[in-house]
Amino acid sequence: MDMQSRRxxxxxxxxxxxxxxxxxxxxxVVAGLVVWGVAVxxxxxxxxxxxxxxxxxxxxxxxxRPVAVFLxxxxxxxxxATSKAVRWTTLLAANEGWxxxxxxxxxxxxxxxxxxSGCGLEYCPSYPEMIAEELPVDAxxxxxxxxxxxxNAWKEDSAKVTAAIDSTLSALRAExxxxxxxxxxxxxxxxVGPTVIGMSAVVQAAAASIDAxxxxxxxxxxxxxxxxADDGAHPNDEGHAAIxxxxxxxxxxx
Length: 254
Fold this sequence. Notes:
By secondary structure, this protein is of the alpha/beta class. The protein has one domain (53-252): 3-Layer(aba) Sandwich (Rossmann fold), CATH 3.40.50.1110. Helices cover 46% and strands 9% of the residues. Helix 9 (194-209) links the parallel strand 4 (180-184) and strand 5 (213-215). The protein is globular, with a radius of gyration of 24 Å. This is SGNH/GDSL hydrolase family protein. One of its GO terms (molecular function) is hydrolase activity. Residues 70-242 form the SGNH hydrolase-type esterase domain. The chain crosses the membrane at residues 21-42. Pfam families: Lipase_GDSL_2 (PF13472).
C-alpha cells in the first residue's frame, strides 16, 4: 500500500536512519517467513508439495517426469478431500515427482460397477473393464487401489472375487509389461474383520504373482473415525494424507 503523502517525501535528518531500520526489519520478516515455510514443509512434506502444484489433476508439470496412472474407487477419485490437490493420489504423485493420470471411479472395484449415485456417471466400469478400455499404454507407473466396494461380493462368493483380482492384475501386467506396478490393498475405517483381511491377503498374493509392489492399509489401520469426512465413509484431508504417507512408505521400503 502506498502511504506516501501527495506533498512528497518528508525530509528529515532521521530519514536515512529510518530507512536503514525499515530495511533491517524487512530482512528479518523475510527470514522469519522462510524459516516458518521450511518448518511447515518438514512437518507435512506431502501436503506442502501438493498444494504447490499448478493443476488439481496433474501432480507435476508434464515433461520428462514419469507418467503414473491411478485406477481405483472413490478414495482414488478423491471423494472426501476438500480439493483434488489434497487427495491421496495427487499428494503421492507430487511427492514422487510423477505426472498423475487419475482414473478413479466411485463405487467400482474388481467386480463392482457403479452408476450415477456411485461415480456421477450413468455407468462406471469395474477395474478390469477400465484396464481394457481406458488404460494409457504409455504409462511408466500404474497404481491400482481399493477393493472395499467388493466386500459384499466377497461374502457371497469369495472364489469369484479372488478370480477377478487375479485376472485383473494379470491383465494390468500384460498391458504394461515394463511399468512399475503398485497395488494398494483394500481399507476400511471400521472393524478390520475376516472379509477385509481375506481380501487383502488375496490382493497381496496376486500382486506378488505379477512382480508388483504391494502396500497394505490395514495393519495398522490407516483410517479411523477422526480421519473421515462428514459423510462418515470417505477420508477427509487428513485421511487422504495418511493414505499417501502409507503408500509412499511402502514404495520406499521396496
